[in-house]
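Hey,

The postdoc asked me to send both predictions to you directly instead of through the lab channel. I've kept everything plain text so nothing gets mangled by the mail client. Protein one:
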Amino acid sequence: MFLTYRDIAELFPKRRGIANEDLSFYHVTCSPDFPQPKGLYISTSLSAEGLKTALENGAIAAVWDESADVPKFTPNHFPLFFSNNVLKGLLDMMKLYEQKTKNMGSSSGNWTNFHVNSAVIPDEFEYREELRMLFAKLDEDGRLGGKE
């Protein structure tokens, strides 16, 4: 079961670009350098270069800090979801996905793979431990819920 545009739009109602509720995300990553076909890029920095690299590596949408300017090269149709706290948004996204997949266990099938690590979490982040606990639940393929 993949995360979908509809799932992400519920978490981030402020957005721009195409609104395709049938769009599925195969990967979620905070690293623009990670190959992410059909990926959702979570921008933990305000780097325009990071977004450009994520696009080149297959991102089909991104979560962007609402206080940052959108880079001029961003295609008008490219879905951007705006957040006032990107890391809190990532936490909420992982919780939503954990709930969505909790009855799947380690079954085979289509999973959204999370490629994230605790290095992106600043020490002062209010929900640091909760996010680290979710990261610890990722299996070796980046599946949340694939590891008991």
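Protein two:
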Amino acid sequence: MKNLSAVNFSFLLQGLFVAFMLMFVFSIILTILTVVSDWEESTVVLNLFNYLSIVTGAAYVGKRCLSKKWLNGLLVGAGYLLILTLLHSDQSIILHWVWVKQFLITAGIGVFGGLLGGIFSQ
């Protein structure tokens, strides 16, 4: 019987890379839209693109992992928010309820993406 690790850190890093690169592309598109037109960005659109990036990165990991796809997706979502928080350089925000709520949302979206990737890997 093979000893399969539940978490593959190489795939996790690849999933986080996919999520951040997709968010980079989305931010360039939004920047061009705001410069060219009179459209103003909104938090709904920004959150939607963040969540779409997390789902894509988690689905990538879920498709590549052999087991515990939901756990790997959860870690992509949680890691994404933790990295963004560290880049924001205000770690005291972690103690606020709003951050905890956002953490639970991104982790849940990561679970969904991991499961979605697992479904499409079959």
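Summary for protein two, as requested: The longest helix spans residues 9-36.

Thanks,
C.
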